Amino acid sequence: MEGSGGGGKHFVLVHGLCHGAWCWYKLVPMLRAAGHRVTALDLAASGAHPARLDEVPSFEDYSRPLLDAVAGAGEGERLVLVGHSLAGLNIALAMERFPTKVAAAVFLTAGMPRAGTHLGLTTEEFNRRITPDFFMDSKTMVLNTGQGPRAAVVLGPKLLAAKLYDRCSDEDLALASMLVRPGSQFVDDPMMKDETLLTEANYGSVKKVFVVVKADACMPEEFQRWMVDLSPGTEAEEIAGADHMAMFSGPRELCDVLLRIAGKHG
């Protein structure tokens, strides 16, 4: 899903676990109406992307659509990357690879690792904090991949309703339940454990803004603020009254925050 505008910024919107570009459908026209270019993309084996998850060997391959989009940005074009939830790790990788192409990176209630630590740090901490019944009726499965077995998850309808879409419309919840696909946190990928991956010189040099979603039932505000504190110099914005899927439950508030960030850092 891509569109162009004149003199505006270029937002690249990246979905979280099991989701796709479709989850930005309310936000895309708002940003375009404000004069900006918007690319909402499907990561590998997500949304309308043709690959199956067992055909995606690594987190690098999962991130490939984003890495290609950032690499292909025009000369002098500086992007505003927006990563939701698990996609904080995808945009972190893109920031490390292409720091000069990113004007600002927005972590929307998203995993935000610290430079000099491993990429999987925030996922590990999140999984450490949750209770054993957190994933409710979600189903875990083991995929047979070329790199050996890998754990995957299918988000259950009760989890979607209780922890992700709890402040969304019935229509948005129904849409999500039809479109979510199996996903993986790639916790066993060597890239997740590489403490030399995220450098101060590259990842650490890009302006980071964390959008704290105060009523998030999936990723509590306390955990979001822990990540902000983990990376000194990170700016924080807040959205009240939205759930984990703030692009559905608070699209106007989210749009206003993104326009403010782009105006300041673009």
| Total helical segments | 10
* Beta-strand content: 15-25%
Mean pLDDT: 95
Q: Secondary-structure element order, as H and E?
A: EEHEHEHEHEEHHHEHEHH
Structural class: alpha/beta
Largest sheet: 7 strands, mixed
Cα-based radius of gyration, to the nearest Å: 17 Å
Strand elements, count: 9
Fraction of residues in helix: 25-40%
The geometry reads as globular
Give an overview of the whole structure.
This protein is an alpha/beta fold and about 270 residues long. About 35% of the residues lie in helices and about 20% in strands. It contains ten helices and nine strands. The protein has a seven-stranded mixed sheet, with helices on both faces. Strands 6-7 form a two-stranded antiparallel sheet. α3 (about 85-95) links the parallel β4 (about 80-85) and β5 (about 100-110). α2 (about 60-70) crosses α3 (about 85-95). The longest helix is centred in the last third of the chain and has 15 residues, at about 250-265. It is globular. The model has no long low-confidence stretch (mean pLDDT about 95).
Kindly summarize this structure in a few lines.
By secondary structure, the chain is α/β, with parallel strands linked by helices. The chain has 10 helices and 9 strands.
